[in-house]
Amino acid sequence: MDQIENPLQIEMRHVSDAVARRVRAWFERTTHGRRLGIVDGSRSVLLPHPDRRDALLKIKGAGFLGGGILFGEHLKTGPMAVTFDFDGRMMEDVAARHDNAVVGGASFQQAATEYRVSGLLQAEGYRVVPCLGFGSITTPAGRSWFSLFEWRRDWSGITISADFPTERYFDANVGIARHQVEMAVRHRLIGYFTYVRDMDGNLILKDLHPFRRVDPVNHSQLSWTLELLHALWIRCSACRFFARTGGADHEDDELSSIPLRALVADADAADYRAFETMIVEPYLHRKPDASFSPVALHDTLRTVRVGEAALALCPQDYVRLVP
């Protein structure tokens, strides 16, 4: 299906009347009429902001490449969304997966989580892309969700470029990882994100929908540690991929090790290889079999520098396997 079907039912939450009218106008202009907007990625569009002249309105989940939402066709991109039980067993969080969103749209969990986490972090003093609200669009073909953001005209990405050289990109990756650790320790929020930057060089948090609340009632030191390490592994993978795309002349494991410096200041390629082979492959990517042992998992974490550092950072109110 290549366009949005009528009749439309459009619901929006937490936004002003003017923003709601602008968003409704975007979705109601189907392929029968030209829609004016700046395509930003595969599922986002930038529109004039109805309430501010110094900003744009961004809809994430606005349709595929500025066109329709492809109901019936689901995204097959991004890492599998996982979570960990009290003993550290890996489980798949199907609802959080990118695969739960249709092409050009977003899932309910993505839209609602982005709004909630953006507000929580902004209240704590973090620079975030403001999430104004979220909503859904329903047609006979299905229902999809979208998020609404206030977007500044001078913001740009942190990919390697002439004005954002390789070393600055590496520093930004360490900064993201440090923020991930800080949020996990101070705010019980674990997830991954990226930055955008303004003309003054300030870095702003973006794409917060993968976060989850990790509390000491439903999580232990083991599960808190694995949630954090999984989020950091995703940052390691992103650092490697985008640095390689940007032309960085380093070995893959060296690129992957850069975010780990948020845990181990002198982390290198050997640390990443140990992390990958002893923790990621057997525990973060594999559902456990009958031989799984939380004691063996704990012992393994203690033998890997990155794992040991993460264990030590876990707040004291998370129950520990070993006192």
**What fraction of residues sit in β-strands?**
15-25%
Assembly state of the chains shown:
single chain
- Average per-residue pLDDT, rounded, comes to 91
pLDDT below 50 for ≥5 consecutive residues: which ranges?
none
Principal-axes geometry comes out as globular
Gyration radius over CA: 21 Å
How helical, in percent, are the residues? 25-40%
The number of E-state strands comes to 14
Count up the helices.
8
Number of domains: 2
How far do the termini sit from each other? 57 Å
Strand order of the largest sheet: 1-9-10-4-3-2
Largest sheet: 6 strands, antiparallel
> Could you state the order of secondary-structure elements as H and E?
EHEEEEEEEHEEHEEEEHHHHH
Structural class: alpha+beta
Question: What labels describe this entry?
Answer:
alpha+beta, 2 domains, single chain, 323 residues, six-stranded antiparallel sheet, two-stranded antiparallel ribbon
